Amino acid sequence: MTPSVDLNDGRSIPQLGYGVFQIPPAETSRAVAEALEVGYRHIDTAEMYGNEREVGEGIRAFGVPRSDVFVTSKLNNGFHRPDAARNAFDRTLGALGFEYLDLFLIHWPLPTRYDGDFVSTWRVLEEFYREGRARSVGVSNFKPHHLRRLHEEAEITPAVNQIEVHPYLTQDGVRAFCAEHQIAVEGWSPIGRGQVLGDPEIVTIAQRLGRTPAQVVLRWHIERGDIIFPKSVTPGRIRENFGIFDFELTGADVETITALNRDHRFGGDPDTVDFIPD
Ligand SMILES: NC(=O)c1ccc[n+]([C@@H]2O[C@H](COP(=O)([O-])OP(=O)(O)OC[C@H]3O[C@@H](n4cnc5c(N)ncnc54)[C@H](OP(=O)(O)O)[C@@H]3O)[C@@H](O)[C@H]2O)c1
Fold it and tell me: Which is catalytic among the residues 49, 100, 129, 168?
């Protein structure tokens, strides 16, 4: 059984989910059904991934009740202005074929766009929350100085902050800020897109435990309390990544992996990312 993390709005989220970034639309429905078959009940998508429709189709095709699956999507960077955000949210629900989302996020703060005003965008997500069309609302790629602005200027505290986290980017500063403000941390690229799995320290721990490096790294996140959703289109890996609840790391293992931090981002820096899709 997947453990859950309690959110600051009274809801809870499965700590392990399935991410669909970079899964081509034609493969998404099959991949989602595969993940549901293995036991995942939390799917992380985004409008910018171009596969929301197929996520909804995969869930319906598998036949699980909508209420049994926790689904997250995110606002496209091109739609931060309030009216554009309202329309984009309607389109997201329409594409998924859902009446509500479990969690909706601002994908990037884009401080160099929209006059640096992500607070107005956040107020629109507050509307979705009050309407019940987003059961929880949160942000992604927010640094403490972005979160502080919401804290000072907005009414609702984000339920989550989804940020890049893996052994080479442990993000302990942002995580400490989030812990202090009851914001749950979701770690994206939890296995560093596969690029941390050959690390000798991780391989050594995996060999001792008779587990794979990916399982060890995913377990490290679980023991630190973060929410994760590794992506794979490979059936064996989808299953492997789910098999992390029948073993534990020692405290020393957790410390060894955390000490691998080198503040290395595989993705962009939230202060400078300004990407807007065509
Ligand atoms: N909010 C944001 O800005 C943001 C940004 C990036 C990602 N995300 C979310 O986070 C999710 C996960 O991040 P991610 O997709 O960037 O990276 P990731 O989950 O760390 O890594 C995915 C890569 O690792 C491979 N892989 C998966 N399981 C493996 C295993 N057991 N052994 C070896 N290799 C394995 C996958 O290959 P195959 O698929 O070929 O098996 C894929 O190439 C995304 O899907 C998305 O939902 C959010």
Answer: 49
